[in-house]
Fold:
Amino acid sequence: MTESIPVAQPPLIPIAASEKSIVYLGDACETLKRLPSDYFQTAVTSPPYWGLRDYGAAGQIGSEENLEDYIANLVRVFAELRRVLKEDGTLWLNLGDSYTSGGRKRRAPDKKNPARAMSYRAPTPAGLKPKDLIGVPWRVAFALQQDGWYLRSEIIWHKPNPHPESVKDRPTRAHETIFLLTKSEKYYYDYQAIMEPAHNGDLRNKRSVWTVATEPTKEAHFATFPTRLIKPCILAGSRPGDFVLDPFFGSGTTGLVAALNDRNFVGIELQPDYIKIARERLARYGVSFREDSLI
Structure:
């Protein structure tokens, strides 16, 4: 039997009706505080990357002046997310990396900003040199580990069709990182659901490098999860009828894949325009959701 939708305390204001799934309009951390503990089986999400895109929302994560503030904000969000996960729950976290822009001491314009959809580049973090790879994903992962998460796996998302780069002094980046983190030492993980073909025709345990091409989304002008990237996370991390959580819902890929695989989903999104994009996108697949607001 399918579980009921979580009841936030105090209740959020309903806008539309849905049987199984819901998207909350609001700040991720504050909304998570109003959701029940030990409820969600798994979370699959990709927070805004630090200093790489302006999503046009006041107070958005990713626009922090200092890298340390960005990491601290994510630690706070995921501490609340850990509370709402079941004891055997999992978190699949996708993050991208970036490079320092030189010896900037303040937000400064840069000729590469149009490609990044930003009006500025953040200052170079303390201790780093111009042109250093920052290592944002691992810095966040270590901070989450220190905060109590179990860091179980690094998954390499290999992109066979990466975004072109004009660099001549390093390889073109063709991958991002997904971390599998867990609330407890023992957790639900259905390895059989995501076994992959071996060279001899048998099946083998899924490897930690996933080759998945990026997928265009006509409704969205920003980068979105490929559905094929998210499906193994949801199949391995949950059962049919479970609730899947995405606190940075964006264009709704996590919700779409969850719904198409007989899971329920809850999303949180700060930008109302993106909820509209997600609604239009999911509707093309016959998927709907209820929307609540923190008004």
